[in-house]
Amino acid sequence: MIALLVKDRCTKCNACVAACPTNVFEAVPGEVPRIARQTDCQTCYMCELYCPADALFVASDCDRPEAVNEADVVASGLLGQFRRDHGWGEWAADPRYKNQHWYMGEVFRRARSSE
Amino acid sequence: MAAAWAAIGAARDGASVVLVDKGYVGTSGVTATAGPGHWFVPPDAHKRAAAIAERQAIAFGLGDPRWMARILDETWQQLPTLEGHYEFGRNEAGVTMYGAVRGPEYMRALRRVAESLGVRILDHSPALELLLHTDGAVAGARGVRRQLHQEWIARAAGVVLATGGCAFFSRLLGSQTNTGDGYLMAAEAGVALSGMEFSSQYIVAPAFSTMARGMSYAFATYYGPDFQPIDIPRLAGGNRAIARHLMQGPVYCDLGRMPEDIRLRLPYISPNVMLPFVRRGIDPFRDKFPITLLAEGTVRGMGGIQISDDDCQTSVEGLYAAGDAASRELVTGATSGGGSVNSAWALSSGVWSGRAAARRARAEGTRADRPAAPIGLAGLRPRRAAVDLDPGAVIAAARGEATDYDKNLFRTGPKLMRSLELLDDLWRSVRDHLGGRGVGAVRAREAAAIVATARWSYTAALHRQETRGQHQRQDAPQLRPELERRQTIFGLDRVWSDFEGRGREVPEQADSDRGSGSGAASARPGVSA
User: Fold this and answer.
1) pLDDT (tens digit, 9 = 90+) per residue, B406-459?
2) B144 and B16: one domain?
3) Set of chain A residues whose Cβ sits within 8 Å of the Cβ of B94
4) Which of residues 29-48 of A touch B (CB under 8 A)?
5) Residue B529 within a domain
6) Entry pTM
7) How confident is the model at residue B509 (pLDDT cuts 50, 70, 90)?
8) What's residue B514's pLDDT?
9) Which of A11, A34, B103, B204 lies at 20 to 30 Å from B93 by C-alpha?
10) Kind and range of the H or E run holding B424
11) What is the DSSP pairing of strand B159-161 with strand B150-155?
């Protein structure tokens, strides 16, 4: 469930307000968006993907809000990792994060043959 | 996904298209968080025939090879048209891999294509109800723009319901907006559903999470409460075996059998799989983590709106159904099409319905000057006085019946009848008393849709007194050749069952006009042999 919006990183672009499929965020004029409906979060991590500032953090528990320490989360290096691994935005040109999804069929085949 | 393909199909044919989404086109729905590996077979007669034969072998008589061939062909033609919007991968041999695409990038590409064709996209604009002409044809739809607190009304010659399946708020990844709304809208227009008994697919996920991604669990080892390995069949019956253990106590898992090179590639194949583990400090390749089974309802089940022709039109003129909102029995039969056949179906049914709607718009016009009536009832226009009925409590109660392992995976007549008594009572409360206004109507409609979907699903399960594919009855474990027919379900207050080519079966149940608590639903008999 969405746990944190890092105010220092947020650029008030409101991309999360638009992208969240369950309408968790609310735009606030002149301010960073508000996590207005936290428990409506479906823990899909899409907001992290659509946040170009890497200011959002979704905690792993999907059933209840988790209190997280902002300094710890920032220090963990997890902010923006999902977006980077997707090769999203500025990472699109980086060959290290090239989309390898096409390999999924081969993974299933190898799993079957290892039985 | 189906909605985007429908919009693209219609816009390519020159229609003026409005695409409304409860959430955001790009992140909404189960495709966005997944990795659809479309059923994708080259147009080689032998290969196509082999692929269809493979599916037919597990369709248990309910599939249709002609429809399978149609979606194979459409998918083969359509996916390469995303070139330039989706960066397709190439395998080691340099072959472009069109079939397997990654959810977020795929949905982003579909949105861009739709926008480039002039489709008008309304995000955060849940549809609440259909509008019908006096002659019975569809006239449009109505809903709310929930971030603007405004109403929207779209008058159209054709409406495609592509609202997804219903996962009953099970926490299945990406499914929270898939609440059966389209089924309810179709049923209110008098359209039937088909295959609703096929709604008992489940998927493994870490116990605390939504992360229902199947691939990694191909390497899973499962453990009981004492952390000793338990024997779980790899293929058929695996989920039921896990469910039996879960009903007794915790089940743990590790992914230690995954080869090292795949572990290293995993974040670039499916970047979301590791997120819940890493954020909990779990090493899934070494640690034994608790798991759950998440209900997939009709998302990976097969039931949905019955379609009447090759354009995916329903029995209502101008009303189409696409993707998981439509029944997929024609292409899957009684075994889930997983992400493969279902994705090919979503794409194809979307394109066909969009094209047909465009053709209809050219022929008929939108008739926007003619009167049209909104037809939504439960959750919008309560039959009696609106009372303080919490839609969240309604949803929780329906979810409990529809997703419980014992009730849904280990079906028996008596268990289904008990659930239906409760669901019938819930339906009467919803129908008589639940009404929301403006944005508040969205949750009320979701509550009505989830109760209705659960009733349709269990009524169909009650009447199919046999075991066929995904639908398994503990009290009828055999396949019965005379039931090798698709089952239609229809009705809101009274729910009717009809096996194609057989007489209609009318369950005896509480009269629609009696108040709740009449108790008459207990008299519901099953189908006689």
Assistant:
1) 999 999 999 999 999 999 999 999 999 999 888 999 999 999 999 999 999 999
2) yes
3) none
4) 40, 42-46
5) no
6) 0.95
7) very low
8) 30
9) B103
10) helix B413-433
11) unpaired
